[in-house]
Sequence to fold (87 residues):
Amino acid sequence: MKVKCLLVDDESQAIKLIENHISKIDSLEVIATYNNAIKAFEVLSSQEINLLFLDIKMPNITGIDFLKTIKKPPKTIFTTAYRDYAI
Fold:
């Protein structure tokens, strides 16, 4: 069984980079990619997503605030280009 992934990032280069890494792992499958969280909400409501790659800092709503709106969120990996958010 493949892990169904959703990628949400406002930077298209970041999405391409993550997709490239995911393509090298047979057990992962990218279901969809979005450049804003609002559009991604529809997919999360209508399809089973196992793993969400979510940018922290996006226009309109942060990844953290977006994640709080999801009743049953999938496992989530936060992505960011900002060192301030790195753990």
Helices lie at 12-23, 37-46, 63-68. The chain has a mean pLDDT of 92.
